[in-house]
Automatic annotation (TrEMBL):
Protein name according to UniProt: AI-2E family transporter
Membrane protein topology class: Multi-pass membrane protein
InterPro entries to which the protein is assigned, alphabetical: AI-2E-like
Family per record: Belongs to the autoinducer-2 exporter (AI-2E) (TC 2.A.86) family.
Location(s) in or outside the cell: Cell membrane
């Protein structure tokens, strides 16, 4: 039996589809807004990221009865001092390694092919090869493909960073106001929500804030510790371009799951160019560092705040990365967390209203 409620729901679905179709037809009207959105996305995301990283320091100074504007200025002075220290101690080494890597790139490719050919001539690989298959050529082809893939992905990463640097000047300004008045934002959002829905909306905003704070700060801490472990280990085994490779691997590891595997390829290839034994040492270091991060640091830092199944994260990254690139992969998990929390609270609110309607009808 068709009820009025069913007809209303069908009419609502049809109306939504018609609106989506009409918006698609006039999408050219929204292109300026989309351009502005793309321009502002990186500085706002960057400011939001550092807001959650620095907010514990703001809260600590608040407990010391320091005025908020003074706290923000103190943190900015500390950041400037840290940047100057890194600029003096780390930047020259990084620039030198980048220049050496760029100038030696053709020689590295040649050495990779030679190392692959030498490896395939060993007795262990000769037992695996057959007369119909040239294992040396296959390995060289796969190694060159992997090298080209990683190089392309790294170029895209640095292109993203370059675009990020262009708009970086606005991020500190946005961050300043977030640190100063960011905690007033939930109250301003609640003012535009009807009074009957404000308790549920306040609970959702608090849950979103806790989830983002735990994810971002935890990701930052675990990635920094991972980078320190890898860099010290690379120095101990004498891996060339250790600082450059560590930075690339650490930046890529911000992308959950996928970034770990992509970031491991460059150090392994450079290690293999030195010797197969060096490549095995690099692989062992990366595996051990990842095990420490996944089984010790991540549970200790995140706890149960990151309630996302690994398969869900991988599917998100594959789908979003295909449409939105590196930035989309970085934002996929936080965006999913926000959508999930909002959906759960909307569902709870819907079920509560259904129960209230049934009680009123009775």
């Amino acid at each position: 039996m068709v009820t009025n409620r069913f007809l209303r729901n069908c009419a609502g679905v049809i109306a939504v589809l018609v609106i989506i179709y009409l918006l698609y037809k006039i999408k050219f009207l929204f292109s300026p807004l989309l351009t502005v959105f793309n321009l502002l996305l990186v500085p706002f995301v960057t400011a939001g990221f550092f807001y959650y990283v620095l907010r514990p320091a703001i809260h600590y100074l608040d407990r010391r009865h320091t005025k908020r504007i003074v706290s923000v200025l103190l943190i900015y002075l500390l950041i400037i001092g840290l940047i100057m220290v890194l600029f003096v101690s780390v930047w020259p080494v990084l620039v030198r390694q980048v220049k050496e890597f760029v100038s030696n790139f053709p020689a590295l490719v040649t050495a990779l092919n030679g190392q692959t050919a030498e490896l395939t001539q060993s007795k262990y690989f000769s037992m695996l090869s057959s007369g119909d298959v040239d294992l040396s050529a296959k390995l060289s082809e796969y190694a060159n493909r992997a090298f080209a893939f990683v190089t392309d992905y790294t170029n895209r990463l640095f292109a993203f960073i370059s675009r990020f640097v262009i708009v970086l000047g606005t991020a500190p300004i946005i961050l300043f106001f977030l640190l100063k008045d960011g905690e007033k934002t939930p109250g301003k959002i609640l003012k535009i929500i009807p009074r009957s829905y404000r308790p549920e909306a306040a609970a959702a905003l608090t849950e979103i804030d806790d989830a983002l704070s735990g994810y971002i700060s935890g990701r930052m801490i675990s990635t920094l510790l991972l980078a320190v472990m890898m860099y010290i280990s690379f120095l101990l085994i004498g891996l060339p371009y250790s600082l450059l490779l560590t930075i690339v691997a650490a930046l890529l590891s911000f992308i959950p799951f996928v970034g770990t595997f992509i970031g491991a390829v460059p150090p392994i290839i450079i290690g293999f160019i030195e010797s197969p034994q060096m490549a095995l040492w690099v692989l062992l270091i990366i595996v051990l560092a990842q095990q420490v991060q996944d089984n010790l640091l991540t549970p200790l830092i995140f706890g149960r705040k990151l309630d996302i199944h690994p398969l869900t994260s991988i599917l998100l990254l594959l789908v979003v990365g295909n449409f939105a690139g590196i930035l989309g992969m970085l934002l996929a998990v936080p965006a999913y967390m926000i959508v999930k929390i909002i959906s759960i609270h909307l569902y709870d609110l819907f079920m509560k209203e259904k129960v209230d309607e049934i009680i009123e009808e009775q």
